[in-house]
Design brief:
single chain, Heat Shock Protein 90, 2 domains, elongated
Length: about 325
């Protein structure tokens, strides 16, 4: 009992009755102070000494820092979820009035309310252009917020056929590519099925953002290639173009919210800078990986590695 002088007698008796005879404690101390306590108890066959106390003190420092980091991560996660919920609420409220404004402007510029003078038409078209940008921004913000909250619950439990999604995006962008005299090709290697986790909406959004950028930033006469293949337990999607490429200094910031590379801004001044952020958010939610290889002035290759989803079993017959 002499090794437990600072412990209440009731605690000492309980410890002694269970065979403990030596105790040491050290604070779990981080940069901001003490976040907990580390205890060590020893049986009669061994006793804690100065070396054990030093080890416990060092362990307490590491534990304190680890606890602080865990608490900081949880606070950031909660803040991010609160931000996403707020953005969803605000964008939902903005959608209706913007849609009404756009509808009225299109009615006027379409001549349905009477003939307009040239100056009037110019001013209304400018207003319509900005309203369309606001509509796109609201849609992108909503998609980004939903990508951070919904797929964890919904998308990761569902499966979607990547080959079917690729066919849909091909039909969507064949004409825009043809108008720019681009060589637009789609290649699917293997028999499939190419099932990956996610929803049809999220997969379409991912492909549309990647392919839209490829077509938009590839000059007249360039090439845009979409490829899909199987690789072990992964489904690999590649979107490659011979466009303007991405400056090396911009690659690290690619996928950051509201960021656009300088050469992209020169070609298309208006843009939300949310497209790749949405793609990354949706891919993270289903455990997919996005990588990019690019050289300014020569082109870009985006590679998405989806985890393969299992083929759903047919429902039992009655």
């Amino acid at each position: 009992m002499e090794n437990l002088p600072n412990i209440d007698d009731s605690w000492a008796r309980k410890l002694a009755a269970r065979g403990w005879c030596s105790l040491a404690a050290a604070p779990a101390k981080g940069k901001k102070g003490v976040t907990g306590v580390i205890w060590a108890l020893c049986l009669r066959t061994a006793r804690l000494g100065p070396e054990d106390a030093s080890f416990l003190e060092a362990a307490g420092i590491h534990a304190g820092i680890a606890l602080e980091n865990a608490l900081a991560w949880r606070a950031m996660r909660d803040l991010d979820q609160a931000k996403s919920s707020f953005v969803r609420l605000v964008t939902h409220e903005l959608r209706s009035p913007i849609a009404v404004v756009l509808s009225l402007l299109r009615t006027l510029t379409g001549g349905y309310a009477g003939k307009l003078e040239e100056k009037q038409m110019d001013l209304l078209l400018r207003a319509q252009n900005r309203a369309e940008f606001l509509s796109t921004l609201v849609d992108d913000l909503l998609a980004l917020a939903e990508g951070k909250t919904l797929p964890d619950v919904q998308g990761a439990k569902e499966t979607v056929d990547a080959a079917a999604a690729l066919q849909r995006v091909k039909e969507r962008f064949e004409i825009p590519a043809k108008e720019k005299e681009q060589e637009f090709t789609v290649l699917v290697e293997g028999e499939g099925p190419f099932l990956v986790p996610g929803t049809q909406g999220s997969m379409d959004r991912i492909l549309e953002n990647l392919v839209s950028n490829a077509v938009k930033y590839t000059p007249k006469g360039g090439k845009v290639s979409l490829r899909l293949r199987e690789e072990a337990d992964r489904v690999i999607l590649e979107v490659e173009d011979t466009g303007i490429g991405i400056p090396s200094k911009s690659l690290q910031r690619l996928g950051s919210e509201f960021y656009r590379a300088p050469n992209a801004r020169r070609i298309e001044p208006s843009g939300t800078g949310l497209g790749l952020a949405i793609v990354k958010s949706l891919l993270d939610a289903v455990g997919a990986e996005l990588s990019v290889q690019s050289e300014e002035g020569k082109g870009t290759l985006f590679t998405v590695r989806f985890p393969r989803a299992s083929v759903p079993e047919p429902a039992p017959r009655d």
